[in-house]
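Hey, quick one: can you model this chain's 3D structure?
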Amino acid sequence: MLHMPMSGIDMAWWPLLVIGFTVGVVGGYFGLGGAWLVTPALNLFGFPMVYAVGTDMAHVAGKSVISTFRHWRFGHVSVIIALTMVVGTMAGVEVGAQTLMFLNSKGLAGPVVRYIYMVLLFSMFFFMLREYINAKKTEKITGKEVKDLVGNRLSKWIQQNLDVWPVIYCKTARMKISIWALFFLGIFTGYVAGILGIGGGLLRVPALIYLVGVPTKVAVGTDLFEVMFSGAYGGFTYGARGMVELIAASIMLCGAAVGAQFGTICTKYVYGLTIRLVYALCCFFAFTSVVLKQVSANYSNIYSKGITEVLAAEGITGNQAKIMMQYPEHMEKYMLQVANRPDWWQAFQTSNTINMVGCAVIMTAACGICAFIIYLLIVGIMKERREKRATDQTAHSGA
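Sure thing. Here's the predicted structure for all 399 residues.
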């Protein structure tokens, strides 16, 4: 067992390695930082949420460097788009964070964030799944295989009508677009990400696909390039507050370094349409997890205000109180022995159980998706080798 000095918990090393490997595979395949997976996974294994978020942010930057390097070799990274958007993203995140603080001061942060999250996740799931089904119907009608869907009416309108100088040509994505369009798109995705408290990759990949009009694989690689900067910024911010477990982050990074190779190489053997299908499934399971989180929050509302007052009377306030409220052993003491409120304790247990179920759902789904990605990789490699052998035999016969 490893002792985590910041949060004070003890944890085995192998779950951290598994989490890192899984998020490496999935993140390398989709181009996401992985906060939607790592945070609930760490929470499931006993990490208080604040330390789970901080530790995740610390390891994201390193994992993104590894994944980006591999995507770069495949020609999936548009540096000019990423660097233009990252400026707007940083500005948007700061404004979004201020909006979140305002909502928090009004006691509305939790519900607003979760409902926005649910609407976005379900919308992306529904739209991408419908798009995949329609593409498969087109394949049956035309007899031609649909590899990817590049551009739509909205992205073409943006490219044609928002062509304000300076306009750049992106060789990787094979398109022209105004820098201002990319900048304001970065502000928008960064603002929403700032309100939701996420890295932004979950929004940026669909934005690059549907609003900018870049191919799916280029959207994945470009987003990972940008995550390097946002992840480093987030890791530094949380580290300065003492909310990062460096031991855990280092072990996860070791697993992610290996997993990222599988995820990124797999994109070489699959079509962009397949990436969108698996992305849609991820959105659905993430949506389910957030719904359970909202149900859990309804129970936590029963005791949160009262236990905060009890802890304040004991001299425990601010972040210290928020952290302590995530430890069952402490809550059992203050709710039953100090406050004599068994109803609080029952609500806390119910809330904690539902939250753990939500974490388990997303972790199980991620492991299943990880296994599916590795399966696609193996199938792709075997197909490539068969084609190579067939080519070599044909060439040998001809000689």
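One thing worth noting: The beta strands are 2-3, 10-11, 167-170, 175-178.
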